[in-house]
Amino acid sequence: MEHNILIIGGNGLVGKTIARILQSRNPDITIFIGGRKGGKTERDLKIDVTDPNSLQIISDKKINLIILSVNDQSDHVLRYAIHHHIDYLDITKPTPDLVKAYAIAGKSDVNSRIVFSSGWMGGIVPGLVNAISKNTQDILEIKLFVYYSVKDLAGESSAHFMAENVSVPFSNYKNDRPVSVRHFLNKETFDFSFGIGKRVAYNFDVPDLYILNKVERVPSVNVKMTYSSKFITWLLGGFQYIRLFDILSLKERRAIFSASGNGDQSVFEIVVKNKIGEKKLSLQSTKGQAELTALSAVLHTEELLRNPHENHVYFSHQLHEPQLLLAQLNAYETIHINTPS
């Protein structure tokens, strides 16, 4: 079967990385790149997610799978994929947009694979939770700790998301009840692996909060993040405590979060607690968060191409056998995973 894959947002940092990894591992597939400005080759398609009329070219090019790596807030691409029975993988949505899109898909007559993969680092956290836990029904609490390096190469969308949402309350979950919190408050000290050591981490919103509680039915879920710079971590916590973000303009907030280096490691740690005790998984991407997010998207894509999953609405971790996902990540040369007993 011919595989024509379209990456919308393929000219961005993560989109380019997806294209590179996917093509290198699957040289026989045809990859099209969608962007607002189009391009110079027949595989560069002019697509603007804010203009539904621009999507007709997807059918014209006989696209089998759409990978969305730009935030489509109006869900035009999702609706097009559902209506035209095209497989769809979205790695971009912040929690409120994900909840809305999931509801749209759930109410639709779906005749393709619709996959939401907007959790942390391409939606792999729930899959890794399942890899270190025999039964999610026994889990009492999950904590995700994120280490973000200011030297990492980050895309513009990450800065814009934080600038737009830093003052917006969000929910973590305690005993199956949502608890309204704000970014960079409620500090907790955590001892990170890979030589990082003890760091103060603060509230951070990722879609895994929603997915782990509402889909995997884990009663308590908490996510905290720390920056590689202890000063920046402390400063952001102070800004939030005195509510300075509330009075800054969007442009000023974007300036605060727009720093991007030339590349550095990205680390996250999952702590799973049950009645017996706790288990921990630590993951390091030596080439940073863009590489890991793109690799995750590629693994989801390859799973859709390889196996005949039924037409249905999925979260990406639901496509995978957990131990196989863990093994595939561990096999990638720039990914290191520790699972101490």
TrEMBL record:
Domain NAD-dependent epimerase/dehydratase: 5-73
InterPro entries registered for this protein in UniProt: Epimerase_deHydtase, NAD(P)-bd_dom_sf
A Pfam cross-reference name: Epimerase
N-terminal signal peptide: none
Transmembrane segments: none
Superkingdom to which the source organism belongs: Bacteria
Alphabetized PANTHER family for the sequence: CARBOXYNORSPERMIDINE SYNTHASE
Name of the featured protein: NAD dependent epimerase/dehydratase family protein
Organism ancestry: Bacteria, Pseudomonadati, Bacteroidota, Flavobacteriia, Flavobacteriales
